[in-house]
Task: structure prediction
Amino acid sequence: MKPIKNFNELIKNQEFQEYLTAQKDLVSNLLITGFVLNNVSKEVEEIKESEKPVVKPIDLTNELIAVKPSAPEQLFNTESIMATVTNICSEITGYPKEMLDPKLDLEADLGIDTVKQMEILSILKDKYNHMIEESFVLSSTPTINDVTKYLLRA
Result:
C-alpha cells in the first residue's frame, strides 16, 4: 500500500473503506448483542418471578388455637409498681428503701438530680415501656406516689 498524502485519498482508499465497514459492523453487532442480552436478562427475571411459589392464605376463622403464655403474667397493681419504683430509686440513689417515703419530692426532698432522674426513667422504660409515653419526663411526677399513679393511668 502506498502512503496516503491527503484526506481525499484516504476516503477513496479501498482498504480504508473496508476497515470502516468492518468497524461499523462491529459496533452494530455489539449494540445488538447488548440489546439482546438486556432483553434476555429481563425475560429471565420474569421467568424467575413466575416460578415463585404462590402462597395461599390459610383460613383459620373456624380453628381454635390454644396459646400458652410464655411467662406468668405480671400483675400491675399499685403495691407492685410502687415497690418497683421505690427499689429503683433506692438502687440509683443509695438511700435505704425505708427512707424513701412515697410522698417525698424526688428532687427537692431527696436531692435526686436530673442525671439520676434520667437513670431512673431509663430503668422504668425498660420495665414499663408500654406504659410510658415518649414525651414523659420524670420531673413532671415529683413523688414516688405520682410516678406510680402515672404508670397506673393506662
